[in-house]
Amino acid sequence: MLVLRHENAVLRRQINGRVRYEPFDRFWLAALSGLIPRYRWREVFPVTPGTLLAWHRRFIAAKWDYSAQRARTGRPPTRAALRKLILRLARENTGWGHRRIQGELARLGHPIAASTVWEILNAAGIDPAPRRAGPTWREFLTNQAEGIIAADFFHLDTVRGRRLYALAFLEHGTRRLHISGVTAHPTQEWAVQQARNTAADLGMRTESLRFLLRDRDGKYGQSFDAVFEADGMEVIKSAPRTPRMNAHYERVIGSIRRETLDHILITNEAHVRRVLAAYQRHYNTHRPHRSRGQLPPDAHQQPTTVHNPDAHKLLRTHVLGGVINEYRYAA
């Protein structure tokens, strides 16, 4: 009677589907099997004795399996953060092979097999061997920029139509601007004196500069070149009528005109000196530059991130009477 009642409960539980016995059902039927003679099992039990024995074997096997406590075999997977670091080192150092990257990781405290580094690079489509053909043009020019300073004249006209000339220098690596002087008569002697002033302002930075880039203007002369050659620089002259060979400098002159000179009427030399000095300070200390990660030439690190702008007062500084605005948060 107990067997029939339990079988009826199982059938009601799964009336529209295949009969499935849960672990509790199997235990109950196994317990009742000892109360019924074997010759009557066919009449009472919905399963055969072989099924009961198979259930018991699976129960014992599961009990003594210990699979939950078994340690995972094989090499553990590489963490996603470490994979990302490997790919970053490979992209930023195209001359490094997988063993060089492995060594750098070991120095950073990440022990990893060279074969694992090779597999990660290969899966990402990066050649695990170092490139032997040399850097790309972009990498080459970026590296060379650290040792180049460019020089050129640019002109401006006063409110009365008098033409003035300014001599400026631009360090390619840092984008630092040096406007050395303004005159109405740019002679070779005047240009040489501006070169001496600029070399003195550069100070120890001249040791990292290898080339002076200028055009073939007759206002320079051999004495001008000699000032920089004395500091170990090589003078490179651009081709005639090719301002694009000094593109960085031409871009800076365009910025000076668009941001300052196009908005001010210049009265005389003293006035333009003050204007250019103010712009030089703004350009070197505040104006962001894309080539430097939006940092000004004189800055070495990004400012602290402001997470709640409403909690800080934004201050505006007028440069040249409001022609240029500088912003900062109050301390």
TrEMBL record:
Every Integrase catalytic domain range: 131-304
GO biological process, one term: DNA integration
Pfam families the record matches: rve_3
Sequence segments annotated as region (Disordered): 286-307
Signal peptide: none
The protein's name in its UniProt record: Integrase catalytic region
Listed GO MF terms: nucleic acid binding
Species, as recorded: Streptomyces bingchenggensis (strain BCW-1)
